[in-house]
Design goal:
Length: 273
């Protein structure tokens, strides 16, 4: 049994099918944060990289191209996402279905990379200590995670606007295992230090996130992300339609000629083994 059983069940459930089905939408939304993270990660030819919490493997493929003739391994707790990653693999990547918290790593990588894949640990100190075992001496960790959810305006404002229509459930709190599990910068630095990492650097970034061509398309995307995705999991079509109607004008405030592109708020985190 995984020490992260709840997250294991979540990422092996409906969310994974939905994630694969909406992969193109997610990738379009992640363009800005992806560029910020790739620059921060400083990938170099010949590196051996672990992409932790790699999901359907999009970043893993991008890393493979950047580090060729080096190598990259994607690891994820979700069977459907690892299957999707393997199915889409260019052949230059390897994928492992495992929990990063307790996988028996050996010191073979120069870099551990993660785009939004490290916020879900029940015991972050134990998990980050375990990840450290994957690095060669002097190896580096470079990852991106969300700032507190109230700072992710395009998730928080639509959620607030639709709150009275939704079940009386709180969204996953900040600093609990979930998308906002590493939202507190000072706490993240302490967790990493306690897990044995040093030279920790955490920088805030606010790249824009292209959510859709129109406010309605952006609203549909937001209903598949963050608090609304979690709260609408059991909702019927009528409730979803009401929420869509309610939040579409909220998304319209970020309309640009290129589409609906609000700013995201994330942390870029670097640490050494
Ligand atoms: C928000 S998704 C990000 C996926 C991918 N990195 C991307 O940017 O498209 C978070 C990923 O972390 C994975 N994950 C959560 N807990 C994990 C764990 N303990 N070990 C490995 N992967 C985990 C999930 O299965 C999911 O694929």
């Amino acid at each position: 049994m995984s020490s992260n059983q709840k997250q294991h069940d979540y990422w092996n459930g409906e969310i994974a099918t939905n994630w694969v089905a909406r992969l193109a939408h997610f990738e379009r939304g992640f363009t800005g944060i992806n560029e910020a993270l790739m620059a921060f990660a400083r990938l170099e030819s010949g590196m051996a990289v672990l992409d932790a919490g790699c999901g359907a493997g999009t970043t893993t493929e991008e890393i493979a191209t950047a580090v060729a003739p080096g190598r990259v391994v994607g690891l994820d707790i979700s069977k459907p996402l690892i299957e999707a990653a393997r199915a889409r693999s260019s052949g230059a990547t390897t994928f492992i279905e495992a929990d990063a918290s307790d996988y028996p790593f050996t010191p073979e990588f120069d870099l551990i990379f993660s785009r939004l894949g490290l916020m879900f640990f029940v015991d972050p100190v134990k998990s980050f200590a375990n990840l450290r075992r994957a690095l060669k001496p002097g190896g580096r960790l470079a990852f991106l995670c969300w700032c507190p959810q109230a700072e992710i305006c395009y998730l928080w404002e639509p959620y607030q606007a639709a709150r009275d229509l939704l079940p009386a459930l709180d969204p996953t709190p900040d600093n609990e295992p979930g998308p906002f599990g590493l939202a507190d910068r000072a706490r993240t630095a302490c967790l990493l230090q306690e897990a044995g990492w040093h030279d920790i650097r955490i920088a805030r970034a606010t790249p824009s996130s292209l959510l859709g061509a129109t406010p309605k398309e952006a609203a549909e995307q937001v209903m598949n992300m963050g608090p609304l995705a979690r709260l609408l999991r059991q909702a019927d079509a009528a409730l979803k339609a009401k929420v869509l109607e309610r939040i579409t004008p909220v998304l319209a405030q970020w309309a640009t000629p290129a589409g609906v592109a609000p700013p995201a708020a994330c942390w870029l985190v670097e640490a050494f083994a």
